[in-house]
């Protein structure tokens, strides 16, 4: 009898989940856009603040790494004459200074910064940015609105947003299944 009750409960929960999925226009096929996270990169920037940490190309790598440590970030934008000239990251430092035996106190940022930038727009979706970061193997995306810099997002920022959205979805599904979801 307990097995029958458990099976009926499971079937009822599945029907309720399918009904919720239908009402919010979620696709029924697995692997489709169910896992896409709604929202744009601009919402992440609003939440984390618009601070842009940067260095000049003529500063030393040591100064850049010191600023990264001080600010608790993994990359800095490189600004020259008020315009985005590149980005310097912990990865650049380890691969282009440490592994090559260079001195961070003598090497200018311009010698190791990444100049071929992949950027995002505040309206770009979180899913699109995750895709770009994965394909291009980058961990930071400068966010540009035309030629104006509006921020920098990291893969960690995107993952935090995805986890938050999935947690909210799970909470709402649990409420719906248990009957606590508002009608």
Short description:
The chain is of the alpha+beta class and 183 residues long.
Notes on the structure:
- The chain is an alpha+beta fold and 183 residues long.
- It folds into 2 domains: 28 residues; 126 residues, CBS-domain (Roll), CATH 3.10.580.10.
- It is built from 6 helices and 5 strands.
- The strands form 2 sheets. A 3-stranded mixed β-sheet has the order 1-2-3. A two-stranded antiparallel ribbon has the order 4-5.
- Helix 5 crosses helix 6.
- The radius of gyration is 23 Å and the shape is elongated.
Give the SSE string. Answer: HHEHEEHHEEH
Nearest-integer average pLDDT: 82
The CATH topology of the largest domain corresponds to CBS-domain
Give the end-to-end Cα distance, rounded to a whole number of Å.
Answer: 32 Å
Number of domains: 2
- Number of helices in the DSSP assignment: 6
Question: What oligomeric state do the depicted chains represent?
Answer: single chain
List the helices and strands and how they pair.
Elements lengths: L1 H22 L17 H8 L5 E2 L5 H11 L3 E6 L2 E7 H9 L27 H11 L3 E6 L2 E7 H24 L5
Parallel strand pairs: 1-2
Antiparallel strand pairs: 2-3, 4-5
Q: What descriptors fit this protein?
A:
alpha+beta; CBS-domain; 2 domains; 3-stranded mixed beta sheet; two-stranded antiparallel ribbon; 5 strands; disordered N terminus
């Amino acid at each position: 009898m307990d097995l029958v009750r458990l099976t009926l409960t499971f079937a009822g929960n599945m029907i309720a989940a399918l009904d919720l999925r239908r009402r919010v226009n979620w696709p029924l096929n697995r692997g489709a856009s169910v896992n896409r996270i709604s929202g744009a990169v601009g919402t992440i920037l609003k939440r984390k603040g618009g601070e842009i940490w940067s260095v000049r190309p003529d500063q030393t790598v040591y100064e850049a790494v010191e600023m990264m440590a001080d600010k608790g970030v993994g990359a800095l934008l490189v600004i020259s004459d008020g315009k985005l000239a590149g980005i310097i990251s912990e990865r650049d430092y380890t691969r282009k200074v440490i592994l090559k035996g260079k001195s961070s106190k003598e090497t200018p940022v311009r010698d190791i910064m990444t100049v071929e930038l992949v950027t995002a727009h505040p309206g770009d979706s979180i899913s699109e940015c995750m895709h770009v970061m994965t394909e291009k193997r980058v961990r930071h995306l400068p966010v540009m609105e035309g030629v104006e810099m509006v921020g920098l997002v990291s893969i960690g920022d995107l993952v935090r947003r995805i986890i938050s959205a999935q947690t909210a979805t799970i909470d709402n599904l649990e409420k719906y299944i248990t009957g606590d979801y508002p009608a």
